[in-house]
């Protein structure tokens, strides 16, 4: 069942009607049943895995909560078990993430959430520990099951326990998020991917530098709109149940630094990595040597955090290279600002902000070659851009899709509101919705919808 | 505390309702624009979603012809052999010259059209236009088990017309704007765009004229000759022929015409058992339906269509097509006089 499909729409509609008809106490149980049914519809044979991870995590959480001298041992056991399960299944069902979805639905996402739960129990940051059913819903909640957002236990469990009332404002916001998400996927990401030359990411030597550069830019926008589109849809769907999911993307191509980029791109993962890898490591190093200018303090936390993020995305040298590049970007950024007063980027002159965003986008897009391709192909790709002949002009049909993506981002960025379209007059909103619906029909009729890329991880 | 978790009101429906209204207005405007001459002149031929642009172009030519002149009296169906072998204007002229009424014909043949597709298309033409006569220009290859053709019978539109409802089929049937959308939906795919832009120079009456070179046909060793060897008559094609004849119940005459080949070729091909087995089986089916089947290859005098009238062992050039068309027009007039075919119900001016 694809997220953008009539089957999913029917599933959500049925789940929604029952959810709002049921008495309040029965709703969490219903959501749990619906979530497991959804998982079973996608891949029934991995339902026991989700249940197993849930039961083991719950049991270990209870042991940690009981206190005693072995709390830390239980925590590390729980973390190791979850990460080992993830690694084992990633190796066992190794697939090409850009070609086919990872068959073990959602494991990459709910394993990290299980770790988050255990750490929050250990740190005592949970206001109230959930029951087994509550934990099962936290890990298996269907809107975020397939590809996140990766919710932290201490923030998400209270939302699950007390869902918001769905009034006109919430429903309007939810519908707008869904419409934006479907548009990003069907009107921008899928057709943009279709405009990229066949084989450009497998045989870059057959293309000139201009086409290679344009294709990499196009791919950055495909990846962004595909994943941001997915997230927007599932956040909208979840809002209709009264449960807010975290924002995962916030106009990342407008980021003026890499620190800002990682606060705008796949935010739920980067914050997870920040909170559970970067900050603990940083604190540990500072305890060892509190000097800010110490090389290890400067280099290791960002580098290892980005390598952890890379390993989560895939087991391969090319992913490590991608992570290392981003780690190096972050280290470089820290070196540049070392010793200077903290600058507020928004107060910089406009030209400097645009230039900074251009540099971040260029370097980030450059790194995407390693994210998308095996290491030898990525190296050939970069060589083709730097040393190859200019070759033919890129396909100009890329431009309207890039413009559409930037236009949506600009509207959201300018108002600092992802549903800024709701501020428009009703007729303008209706016209935009009508245009979107027509484009959905036209674009989805043109080809089969491509599976969401992040289902591949 | 209230148990209710859903407090959204119908006020939310205002924007979607307005959007639906706008879409309806835009679709109406697009439909009106799509039906103008300007659209027909400046856009690609609208599509029914098939992979065969020649089919789309031929069908659109027929529609344009009907809009301008009304339904034709006589429609030719078949593969590229019929497309290049029957000139509608010359058939009509010969029919009138031999004492028949003034009629107007259209050649709706499409390269690669097998018997199943011809039958499906013939049924739609008969239902929509009620012509006096459908001439199916048949070749043995049309009935070969796995003929590679456009497979039009699988089109949602043709399936819809056969009673298998689908939204896409229905839209293709009623909306010209939707058909333009189908034509342009592949614009992102350069290969599809290249195929779509390739010219298919049939005339307004659907005939595809191949210039005559004056030289006798060559290429008798063409691999086409061997296509029938080892093949069987496809049962689905024979069943399709049955379905084609069912339109006679609606008052439409159906004639199957064996498309002729060059004399030099016939001794090598027609006389072999392979071809004979195909054509006899087709003949039996047609005879069971008590319908006319005009054999030409063996029965036409060799001098009627000399070998210079062919471009290759299968396709006639303009010279050969003129001779066959004149012969067919005359033969049709004679058949109506003899009572073998019902005469055209109304003479068209």
Work out the largest interface and the residue count of each chain: A-B, 31 and 26 residues
Say what oligomer this is.
Answer: heterodimer
- Give the ordered list of helices and strands of chain A: HHHHHHHHHHHHHHHHHH
**Beta-strand percentage range of chain B:** 5-15%
- What is the gyration radius of chain B calculated from CA atoms? 23 Å
- CATH class of the domain at 71-151 and 200-338 in chain B, please? Alpha Beta
* Structure annotation, total helices of chain A: 18
Series of secondary-structure elements of chain B, N-terminal to C-terminal:
HHHEHHEHEHHHHHEHHEH
Strand tally of chain B, please?
5
Q: What share of the residues of chain A does DSSP label as strand, in percent?
A: under 5%
Mean pLDDT of chain A: 90
Can you give a write-up of this model?
The complex is a heterodimer of chains A (457) and B (349). With 457 residues, chain A is mainly α. Chain A has two domains: 6-163, no CATH class; 169-387, no CATH class. Chain A is built from 18 helices and no strands. In chain A, helix 3 (47-65) runs antiparallel to helix 4, helix 10 (209-240) crosses helix 15 and helix 12 (267-288) runs antiparallel to helix 13. The radius of gyration of chain A is 22 Å and the shape is globular. The two termini of chain A are 17 Å apart. Chain B is an alpha/beta fold and 349 residues long. Chain B has a domain at 71-151 and 200-338: Rossmann fold (3-Layer(aba) Sandwich). Chain B has 14 helices and five strands. The longest helix of chain B has 21 residues, at 14-34. The model of chain B has no long low-confidence stretch (mean pLDDT 84).
């Amino acid at each position: 069942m694809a997220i953008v499909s009539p089957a999913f729409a029917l599933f959500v509609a049925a789940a929604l009607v029952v959810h709002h008809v049921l008495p309040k106490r029965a709703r969490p149980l219903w959501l749990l049943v619906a979530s497991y049914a959804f998982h079973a519809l996608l891949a029934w044979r991995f339902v026991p895995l989700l249940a197993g991870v849930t039961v083991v995590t719950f049991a270990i959480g209870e042991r940690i909560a009981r206190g005693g001298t072995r709390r830390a041992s239980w925590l590390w056991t729980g973390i190791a078990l979850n990460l080992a399960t993830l690694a084992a299944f990633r190796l066992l069902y190794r697939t090409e993430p850009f070609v086919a979805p990872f068959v073990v639905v959602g494991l990459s996402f709910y394993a990290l959430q299980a770790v988050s739960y255990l750490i929050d129990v250990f740190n005592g940051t949970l206001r109230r520990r959930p029951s087994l059913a509550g934990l099962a819903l936290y890990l298996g909640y269907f809107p975020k099951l397939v590809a996140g957002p990766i919710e932290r236990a201490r923030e998400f469990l209270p939302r699950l326990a007390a869902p918001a009332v769905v009034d006109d404002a919430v429903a309007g916001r939810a519908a707008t998020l869904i419409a934006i998400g479907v548009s990003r996927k069907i009107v921008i990401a899928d057709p943009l991917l279709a405009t990229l030359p066949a084989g450009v990411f497998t045989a870059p030597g057959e293309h000139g530098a201009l086409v290679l550069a344009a294709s990499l830019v196009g791919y950055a926008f495909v990846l962004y709109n595909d994943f941001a589109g997915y997230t927007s849809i599932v956040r909208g769907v979840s809002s209709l149940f009264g449960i807010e999911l975290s924002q995962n993307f916030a106009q990342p191509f407008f980021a003026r630094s890499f620190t800002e980029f990682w606060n705008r791109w796949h935010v739920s993962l980067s914050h997870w990595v920040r909170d559970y890898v970067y900050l603990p490591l940083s604190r540990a190093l500072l305890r060892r040597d509190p000097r800010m200018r110490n090389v290890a303090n400067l280099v290791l936390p960002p580098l290892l955090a980005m390598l952890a993020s890379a390993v989560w995305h895939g087991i391969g040298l090319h992913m490590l290279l991608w992570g290392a590049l981003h780690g190096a970007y972050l280290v470089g950024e820290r070196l540049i600002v070392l010793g200077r007063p903290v600058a507020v980027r928004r107060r910089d002159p406009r030209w400097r902000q645009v230039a900074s965003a251009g540099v971040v986008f260029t370097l980030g897009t450059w790194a995407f070659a390693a994210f998308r391709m095996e290491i030898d192909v990525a190296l050939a790709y970069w060589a083709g851009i730097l040393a190859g002949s200019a070759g033919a002009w890129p396909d100009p049909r890329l431009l309207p899709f890039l413009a559409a993506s930037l236009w949506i981002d600009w509207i959201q960025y300018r108002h600092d509101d992802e549903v800024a379209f709701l501020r428009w007059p009703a007729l303008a909103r209706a016209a935009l919705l009508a245009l979107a619906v027509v484009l959905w029909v036209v674009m989805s009729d043109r080809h089969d919808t491509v599976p969401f890329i992040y289902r591949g991880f | 505390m209230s148990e209710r978790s859903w407090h959204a009101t119908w006020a939310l429906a205002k924007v979607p309702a307005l959007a639906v209204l706008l879409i309806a207005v835009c679709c109406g405007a697009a439909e009106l624009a799509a039906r103008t001459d300007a659209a027909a002149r400046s856009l690609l031929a609208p599509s029914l979603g098939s992979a065969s642009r020649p089919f789309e172009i031929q069908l659109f030519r027929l529609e344009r012809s009907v809009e301008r002149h009304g339904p034709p009296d006589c429609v030719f169906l078949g593969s590229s052999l019929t497309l290049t072998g029957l000139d509608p204007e010359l058939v009509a002229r010969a029919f009138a010259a031999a004492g028949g009424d003034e009629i107007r014909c259209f050649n709706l043949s499409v390269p690669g059209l097998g018997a199943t597709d011809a039958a499906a298309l013939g049924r739609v033409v008969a239902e929509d236009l009620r012509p006096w006569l459908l001439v199916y220009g048949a070749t043995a290859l049309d009935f070969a088990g796995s003929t590679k053709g456009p497979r039009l019978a699988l089109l949602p539109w043709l399936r819809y017309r056969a009673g298998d409802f689908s939204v896409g089929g229905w839209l293709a049937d009623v909306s010209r704007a939707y058909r333009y959308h189908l034509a342009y939906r592949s614009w992102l795919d350069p290969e599809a765009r290249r195929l779509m832009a390739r010219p298919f120079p049939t005339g307004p009456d659907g005939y595809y004229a191949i210039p005559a070179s004056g030289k006798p046909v060559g290429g008798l060793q063409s691999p086409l000759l061997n296509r029938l060897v080892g093949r069987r008559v496809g049962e689905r094609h024979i069943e399709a022929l049955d379905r084609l004849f069912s339109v006679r119940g609606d008052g439409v005459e159906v004639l199957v015409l064996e498309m002729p080949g060059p004399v030099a070729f016939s001794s090598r091909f027609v006389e072999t058992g392979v071809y004979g087995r195909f054509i006899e089986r087709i003949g039996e089916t047609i005879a069971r339906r008590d319908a006319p089947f005009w054999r030409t290859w063996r029965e036409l005098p060799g001098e009627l269509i000399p070998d210079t009238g062919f471009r290759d062992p299968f396709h006639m050039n303009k010279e050969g097509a003129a001779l066959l068309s004149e012969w067919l027009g005359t033969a049709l007039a004679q058949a109506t006089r003899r009572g073998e075919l019902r005469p055209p119900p109304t003479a068209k001016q």
